[in-house]
Amino acid sequence: PVELIKTVVSQELLVRGEKFEDIFAEFDEVPLGAASVAQVHRAVLTEKYGSKEVAVKVQRPSIESKLLGDIANLKAIAKTFNDDLPLDYYTVFCELEKQLADEFNFLAEAVAMDRIYDTCTKDANGMPCESPIVMPRPVSGLVSRRVLVMDYLEGVPLSRAAEEMLKKGISG
Fold first, then answer.
1. Using an 8 Å Cβ cutoff, are 60 and 39 in contact?
2. Would you call 74 helix, strand, or coil by DSSP?
3. Disulfide: which of 42, 57, 118, 141 matches 28 by Cβ 3.0-4.6 Å?
4. Contact 92, 75 (CB under 8 A)
5. Residue 67 contacts by C-beta under 8 Å, 6 or more apart in sequence?
């Protein structure tokens, strides 16, 4: 529910005395998209934060402990039945657990976004160049472990673009 999402955003981003409306002039109640770890809402920042359209990725409350609890249970089962299984699932679940740690840390995701941007905007000699692709950038000061505010980019989901290409008889 949007009220729960706004509560998470408020807990993560607001500084003392600040209200939700001090950051967001608009905040769409219906998410643009949702997945198991987070959902994304379109919003518009207030003048104080640049008056621009953004996408706000918000981690679902308690999802980290739920998923890591599931992984712990899978590891326990895999360890118990390790000799009877055709594959070392314990090791597989340990690796999955390590990979999920990054999925829950939007600060790390923002750093990765900036690193990719920096790589795409330098030529082979390390000189600045125009990026061959358009990518969202995190909004400085509006990123936390559980909330990531980034540039909003209008687009078509890849799945829909692929469907349209197939309809037109274009193949890759």
1. yes
2. helix
3. 42
4. no
5. 36, 37, 100
* Cα 125-129-134 angle, rounded to 5 deg: 130
Average pLDDT along the chain, 172 residues, taken 10 residues at a time: 95 94 97 91 96 96 86 92 89 90 90 95 93 93 97 85 79 54
45 membership: H or E segment, kind and range: strand 38-45
pTM: 0.81
CA 47 to chain centre: 25
* Cα dihedral: 27, 32, 34, 40 (round 10): -40
Count CB atoms within 10 A of the CB of residue 155.
9
